[in-house]
Design brief:
homodimer; alpha/beta; Rossmann fold; 14 helices; DNA-binding; Peripla_BP_I (chains A, B); DNA-binding transcription factor activity (chains A, B); transcription cis-regulatory region binding (chains A, B); DNA-binding (chains A, B)
Chain lengths: 342, 342
DNA sequence: CTGAAAGCGCTTACAG
DNA sequence: CTGAAAGCGCTTACAG
């Protein structure tokens, strides 16, 4: 027997299509007794709504905005590209994604951009946010206007963002610590830690997780104070180079932010590649090469394609009031060695 | 301006809706000149087909069959459960998945089941296949009948399956070898390798990759001949137990198949947990525990949820003649340490 | 080789 | 609080 439609429901419950729709979509203004009748019919006929038909009738359009600090950061550029690609791929489903570039490390501008978003033009926002009072307030304001916001890559848990699309960054830090500890088994010495900025929550959390594991499980490895490279290759090369010169006894490096081209340059200039165990983040083209030639030992990665798709699915679910499949939307911490490179 | 519809196209090209549809779906029987006109109109109006409307009009139903050797294997049971869950979640999109249990290690039965599939009732097949002439022929026969087949978890590359949904198993083996080599840095000794059956392509490939890395990069680690446990905890406990008793100098174990409950039991009985570096596959409940309590050092995993969803998406794309997003459909080799457990 | 008309299963004003 | 009717953008027999 074919599957039940709204017409079948209407007949079975003795009401009109409009009433069926009101009950189905909880629009209210229906007598409890009528609701009851309809719900019984739904159960009896095992009714399941046809999404395609609903989409068509509703003429729903999803206009999502992705705010990404593209700048010089390869990972962010990949993320932006994936979002743009998604927009094309899903045009047939009436989903469009506008990628807006935001200046990196500029909370005020970001807040201004968020506040300037046109509600009639955007049905959801994904943002690589920084944790700042103005930014938080701007997110909350969008949420109040009924525009769902998801944070991307770095979370702002205190805000009213509906969801976070990204990895568990303290788990990533712990993983880096554990790999470092195992790869350097039996040795003791200093470990350098390079971040982009300790004003970024994701960087802080990675650092926290890393320190925690080293201190509790590998006390022979002593971390130096974090240095910051602003995710910028040139700055990274400078600050890391200076550190390496100051501490010739460094045996490990955890690069938990961007600007890894600077890491590679600094290491190569000192012929230190291979003698220092390096764990870095994000499988960009240059990191990939460094992994293959042995300069890096492991890369922790978050897949920008998955993150873009996840943000899109989550925003759509939020717009439709549908549930989110947590299993599917959990972004995993990929570990890459030379041997499992894609 | 609102997006163009088939009506707009028809008006612009000066033809009827039926002709538009013929050109859009390449049904043939249209004069080249007419096709040309329509295609120009499409380009001019930037026409993009509305999937929801097409789905509704076509009354397309996707009836997929997933053939899984559920047996005693926890991973396979998880895979089957995920497929069942998908069926519910996607009922609104007219996708149904029938999960059929196949007997493990029984090529003839599997071939018979494949041959017995009712073409009118199934629009695509996903199968955890074994590499056997009869099975291959059965797959080819389905492909000839126009029913797309994807292989799941273990591939049959010589067949006419349209796609493989699973990890690169020799890369997984290499990864295990590399982790083993690094975790045992500086030590030398024997490494045990436990498979389910060397008649399974995925197991053979993992073994190959593992051996390759150990022999070329870690010559101080010497692998013993593979033992087979048929993915069955009880058998695994026996054969591995016997091996451990025979070789008290084993310092590492690569468990590349199922039945890891048997591995845990054999190690615990001999108080060998922790002293032997263990790398296993699939993050099932017991493996997870073993990772946390230190019996296992790392788990390589393929996410059954991702695999089920990927198989479903690929089968749908094949049914519709749509392209496959290779980036999205690549199944990754997850590496889990205690620190990045989900 | 081409077209007119009906229909897919929903939602949406609008009227009462 | 409820209903009749039109419409969303496609596809599909059927007729010519």
């Amino acid at each position: 027997m074919a599957r039940a439609t709204v017409h079948d429901l209407a007949r079975a419950a003795g009401v009109s299509l409009a009433t069926i729709d009101r009950v189905l979509n909880r629009r209210g203004g229906v007598r409890p007794a009528t609701i009851e009748k309809v719900e019984q019919a739904m159960a009896r006929l095992n009714y399941r709504r046809d999404m395609a038909a609903a989409m068509l009738a509703k003429q729903q359009e999803y206009r999502f905005v992705f705010l990404v600090p593209i700048g010089v950061n390869t990972f962010m550029r990949n993320l932006a590209n994936e979002a743009t690609r998604l927009s094309d791929l899903n045009a047939a489903d009436r989903i469009s994604i506008r990628v807006v570039e935001i200046p990196p490390f500029d909370d005020e501008k970001l807040a201004a951009i968020l506040n300037g978003l046109d509600g009639s033009d955007t049905s959801g926002v994904a943002v690589v946010a920084t944790e700042n009072a103005q930014v938080r307030q701007a997110i909350d304001r969008l949420a109040e206007r009924g525009i769902p916001v998801v944070t991307l890559v770095s979370d702002v848990p205190a805000s009213r963002r509906a969801h976070f699309v990204g990895i568990d960054n303290s788990a990533a830090g712990r993983t880096a610590g554990s790999l470092m500890g195992r790869f350097l088994r039996g040795r003791s010495g200093r470990i350098a830690v390079l971040a982009g900025s300790m004003l970024l929550r994701d960087h802080v959390e990675r650092h926290f997780g890393f320190e925690r594991v080293l201190r509790t499980e590998y006390p022979d490895l002593v971390t130096l104070p974090v240095i910051e490279g602003r995710d910028n290759g040139a700055i990274v090369e400078d600050v890391l180079g200076a550190l390496l010169d100051r501490h010739p006894d460094i045996i490990g490096l955890y690069s938990l932010g961007g600007g890894n081209r600077g890491v590679i340059a600094a290491l190569n200039k000192r012929h230190a590649g291979g003698r220092i165990c390096v764990i870095a983040h994000e499988l960009t083209a240059h990191c990939r090469e460094a992994l293959i030639d042995g300069t890096f030992d492991a890369i922790l990665n978050q897949d920008p394609g998955h993150e873009a798709r996840s943000a899109m699915r989550v925003l759509r679910a939020l717009t439709d009031g549908q549930p989110i499949d947590q299993g599917q939307e959990r972004i995993r911490i990929d570990i890459y060695l030379r041997d499992n490179l894609p």
